């Protein structure tokens, strides 16, 4: 009897935690494989200077806006050997994209090479949704965020949607 009560309690706690997740978080959790440790936008913001930031979106997306000091690495034309020449092994890396899918794939490659790497949970969408700043290709603050396409634009709640 105790086992049944215990199992039911665990099930109830799990259901409650799932109910508290936003639609955005549920979408992320079902889209990503979770092969790379996450870092939240809140934690990254609080310790920003401790990390090397890599942007795994396409150049047009990066030029529209990106996180300050983020290094463009791309996704479709990502060149691991070229990127490795510019990375420090002693500094942890955060990779981001729109929501975390492409950055997870790039982060996996860096992880296999021995780098301490994190995937930014929710990507630039969550960063901007929390009202954190992004800059354009001229290093000026902008409200524009490239949302990849119209379908994905629904997840950006703050800022101007560009696609």
Care to describe what's here?
This protein has a single domain (21-162), classed as 3-Layer(aba) Sandwich (Oxidized Rhodanese, domain 1). Helix content is 41%, strand content 16%. Residues 8-18 have low confidence and may be disordered. The longest helix has 18 residues, at 2-19. α4 links the parallel β2 (52-55) and β3 (71-72). The chain has eight helices and nine strands. The protein has helices at residues 2-19, 23-31, 41-46, 59-64, 80-84, 101-112, 123-129, 150-153; strands at residues 38-39, 52-55, 71-72, 93-96, 117-120, 134-135, 141-142, 144-146, 160-162. The strands form three sheets. A five-stranded parallel β-sheet has the order 1-5-4-2-3. Strands 6-7 form a two-stranded antiparallel ribbon. With 163 residues, the chain is α/β, with parallel strands linked by helices.
Brief summary of the model shown:
It is built from eight helices and nine strands.
Mean pLDDT: 90
Which structural category do the helix and sheet elements fall into?
A: alpha/beta
User: Helix amount, in percent?
Assistant: 40-55%
Give, in order, the helices and strands: HHEHEHEHEHEHEEEHE
| Low-pLDDT regions | 8-18
The end-to-end distance, rounded to whole angstroms, is 56 Å
Q: Return the domain count.
A: 1
- Tell me the Rg in angstroms: 18 Å
Strand content: 15-25%
CATH class, please?
Alpha Beta
Features:
163 residues; five-stranded parallel beta sheet; globular; Oxidized Rhodanese, domain 1; two-stranded antiparallel ribbon; alpha/beta; single chain; 8 helices; 16% strand; 9 strands
């Amino acid at each position: 009897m105790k086992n049944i009560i215990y199992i039911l309690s665990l099930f109830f706690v799990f259901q409650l935690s799932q109910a508290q997740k936003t639609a955005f978080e549920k979408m992320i959790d079902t889209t990503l494989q979770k092969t790379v440790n996450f870092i939240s936008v809140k934690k990254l913001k609080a310790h920003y200077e401790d990390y090397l930031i890599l942007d795994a979106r396409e150049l047009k997306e990066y030029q529209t806006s990106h996180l300050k000091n983020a290094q463009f690495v791309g996704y479709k034309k990502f060149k691991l050997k070229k990127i490795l020449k510019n990375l420090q092994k002693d500094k942890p890396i955060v990779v981001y994209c729109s929501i975390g899918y492409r950055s997870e794939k790039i982060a996996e490659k860096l992880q296999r090479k021995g780098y301490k790497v994190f995937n930014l949970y929710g990507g630039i969408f969550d960063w901007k949704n929390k009202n954190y700043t992004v800059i354009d290709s001229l290093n000026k603050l902008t409200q524009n965020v490239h949302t990849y396409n119209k379908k994905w634009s629904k997840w950006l709640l703050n800022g101007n949607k560009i696609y």
